[in-house]
Amino acid sequence: MKLYSYFRSSAAFRVRIALNLKGLPYEAAFVHLAKGEHRAAGYGAINAQALLPTLDDDGKLLTQSLAIIEYLDETRPEAPLLPRDAPGRARVRSLSMFVACEIHPLNNLRVLQHLKRALAQNDEQINAWYRHWIADGLAKFEADLAQGPGTGKFCHGDAPTMADCCLVPQIFNAQRYQCDTASYPVTMRVFAHCMQLDAFDRAQPSKQPDAEK
Amino acid sequence: MKLYSYFRSSAAFRVRIALNLKGLPYEAAFVHLAKGEHRAAGYGAINAQALLPTLDDDGKLLTQSLAIIEYLDETRPEAPLLPRDAPGRARVRSLSMFVACEIHPLNNLRVLQHLKRALAQNDEQINAWYRHWIADGLAKFEADLAQGPGTGKFCHGDAPTMADCCLVPQIFNAQRYQCDTASYPVTMRVFAHCMQLDAFDRAQPSKQPDAEK
Q1: Binding-face residues of A in 150-209 toward B, CB within 8 A
Q2: Angle of helix B65-75 relative to helix B10-21, nearest 10 degrees?
């Protein structure tokens, strides 16, 4: 398997964690998001959405991080990343999608660039935007974890799931932008628990071969 | 089953289509998004994420539209909304998530309100923002449909899937904001095909009991 990745892509980070949790070796191909390499014609032939990550599984090209993780779970069922029961699966998907649909899309690179170029926002204003959506999102995520009877050592139960694959990159982003995370004790306890696992630790941006200072 | 819905919520619209396609009757409970009823404490006990929709399936509370559709497909497998093969399932999920993670989050109500209140954008500027992300997103969606060998009468094959449940509400939004859709012929052909089906037609905002002019 080959993963098209960029060290700072949160979506690629999710899939790196999933591959590590499942013990699946992969080759990495690096696409430099900040240099716009994802918009090059060559990459467009691989991923029409012009986004990271793409997983090439023996010629099958898979896109969108959560779709890739579901595919991995269906085709390599060992170390499952979704529970067996339908309500549990729904909860893990909901937590995952909360991060992927409600927090992350507002803060990704192309949105920040658009705020700068089209809305003439300065760095301070862009940081305020970033922190606003992190705070709004993590408060709701925390409420969901605190309220949900399924929350365990991880987001759902005592084994890592797709929801943890989504949460951890989001917390890395929050920390990178110096967001206050003290108000989210359940979330941060789960995050700390995840980071004790090698699968999460090895997937982090600074440990990727294409990492920059 | 009870669906917490709002006529203009795209995410609720997705689930209304899915319930109709599966022929599942449901009771609707209306939560007025524009009046902020989703942020009331009572609804917070039902949906900690303070978002629509929520599906109450005999006391099991399910959140996030795509997680709900997956749950319905797992618990009511007739009229499947995902293909049987793993790569096909991955493609349908990827197209669904492209809408749910890349287009819709940038244009939902709370983002438009934030642009107005915190960034002092006027109506014209907000419309420009809206159309920018619709155009950016639909161009990539079109490329994906045009490039994907799985595209049929619907987004994937000749039967409706979760991807169509996501696409149709997004096109309704595009039309509501007078976005030009002529550049997306494959997408619009699929949309037209969907709208010939009663399941899609009955789910549209203007046909809901809580619809406003």
Answers
A1: none
A2: 10
